[in-house]
Amino acid sequence: MLKRQLPTPLKTLLFLSIVLSVSACGFHLRGNIPLPSGIQNMYVEAPAGTFKDQLEEVLTNGGAQLASAPAGADVILNVRKAATNRTVGTLDERAKASSYNLRFRVSYTLDTLDKKQLRKATLVETRRYNFDPELVIESEAEEAELQQDMEQAIALRMMRQLSTVTDLQ
Fold first, then answer.
1. Which is it for the CA torsion 98, 123, 46, 30, positive or negative?
2. How many Å apart are CA 106 and CA 81, to the nearest integer?
3. How many domains does the chain have?
4. Does 78 have pLDDT greater than 90?
5. Is residue 110 a contact partner of residue 118, using CB atoms and an 8 Å limit?
6. Is residue 74 one of the residues assigned to a domain?
7. Rounded to an integer, what distance in angstroms lies between the CA atom of residue 116 and that of residue 31?
8. Least confident stretch, 64-73, 113-122, 127-136
9. Angle of helix 50-61 versus helix 136-162 axis, rounded to 10
10. pLDDT, tens digit, for every residue of 89-117?
11. 45 located within any domain
């Protein structure tokens, strides 16, 4: 059976048209969402920890220049609350926890230097994992992995929300 291949110039043209159409539609790889130019120079005020690190990485990937002090920025991203809550999801026949629910909640505002609030939001991510008392170390590792996943998901959602800010003068 003979296979018919497209000529090389036609392949190149097809490839270029796909690349141009995908880039023209606003498609961006996950985590590479561009920020509006008016808020690219920002100061991040957040509790120290892995979430702040994750958020700063996502912002930098989106084109933000992170100022080292509020006075050197155009806007201030103020993460007022970033907290994880763990509750029992289900109980086994002996009334022992067999699963847990993790809930990561972040409240933030985006403010100008003159205290005008551009954005205020609260974001929540939840995950559930099974708990086996025979595998405590594995369960702790799974919980840490889920925590990291929730932090990344919230940071990306914040980035998407910030990319839509249009009310900056």
1. positive
2. 5
3. 1
4. yes
5. yes
6. yes
7. 27
8. 127-136
9. 40
10. 887 888 888 888 999 999 999 999 988 99
11. yes
- In angstroms, the Cα distances linking 149 to 74, 93, 152 are 30, 31, 5
Higher-pLDDT residue of 49, 139:
49
Distance CA 19, CA 15 (A): 6
Q: Phi/psi of residue 25, each to 5°?
A: -85, -5
Structure tokens at 167: 């009310």
| CATH code, domain carrying 132 | 3.30.160.150
The token pair at 162 is 């910030």
Quick check: 142 and 129 in contact, CB under 8 A?
yes
The rounded distance, in Å, linking the Cα atoms of 72 and 20 is 37
Residue 22 makes CB contacts below 8 A (sequence gap 6+) with none
Residue 45 CA to residue 24 CA, distance in Å, equals: 34
Residue 71, domain extent: 31-162
> Could you tell me the two tokens for 144?
């840490």
Entry pTM: 0.74
Sign of CA dihedral 22, 149, 61, 59: positive
The single-letter code of the amino acid at 160 is: R
Domain membership flag for residue 12: no
- Asked whether the predicted pLDDT for residue 132 surpasses 60, the reply is yes
